[in-house]
Write a structure and sequence with these properties.
single chain; 168 residues; alpha+beta; Cytidine Deaminase, domain 2; five-stranded mixed sheet; globular; metal-binding
Length: 168
């Protein structure tokens, strides 16, 4: 008697989504989640960098933040004809994180097409220090593949932090 292979049981909705070409994402094992988030952050920053609005400097920057919930929040730089009124990629990603209801950063990635990894400006370093611990990892990357691993505390030693404010 020939061996008959049976298809695994799938819900009607699952079969319908497959018929429409929607393929469900596979869940990663807990072990793979240990090492992939930083790599995924750089990929997310690279993807959003392509959407930067930088008609004046032509210097596109992308940033991705890993929130404490595990969600990734991205931002890109947005320039303005009134040049100092632009928004940095890091500030855009922080705004997206806050808009999504998160207030803690677990990891940061910033990417630009530059000869060396470019750190955030002073204002963005202070903004990162507001929502991240000093030991929060930061990956600075270039489009050519150069990487620099640092921390929020190393980028802004002695930062003025929320716990420095008096209780009111």
């Amino acid at each position: 008697m020939p061996c008959v292979r049976r298809r695994p049981l799938q819900s009607h909705a699952h079969r319908r989504s497959l018929a429409r070409g929607i393929v469900p994402k596979r869940r990663r094992s807990a072990a793979s989640q240990q090492w992939r988030p930083r790599m995924d952050l750089v990929s997310a920053a690279t993807e959003v960098r392509a959407r930067a609005y930088a008609p004046y400097s032509r210097f596109q920057v992308g940033a991705a933040l890993l929130g404490a919930s595990g969600a990734v929040h991205v931002g890109c730089n947005v320039e303005n004809a009134a040049y100092p009124e632009g928004t940095c990629a890091e500030a855009g990603a922080i705004a997206a994180m806050i808009a999504a209801g998160e207030t803690r950063i677990a990891a940061v990635a910033v990417i630009a097409d530059s000869p060396r990894p470019v750190p955030p400006c002073g204002g963005c370093r202070q903004k990162l220090a507001e929502f991240a611990d000093p030991d929060t990892p930061v990956t600075l990357a270039t489009m050519a593949g150069a990487r620099l691993e640092t921390t929020v505390g190393a980028l802004l030693p002695g930062a003025f932090r929320p716990d420095d404010m008096p209780d009111t």
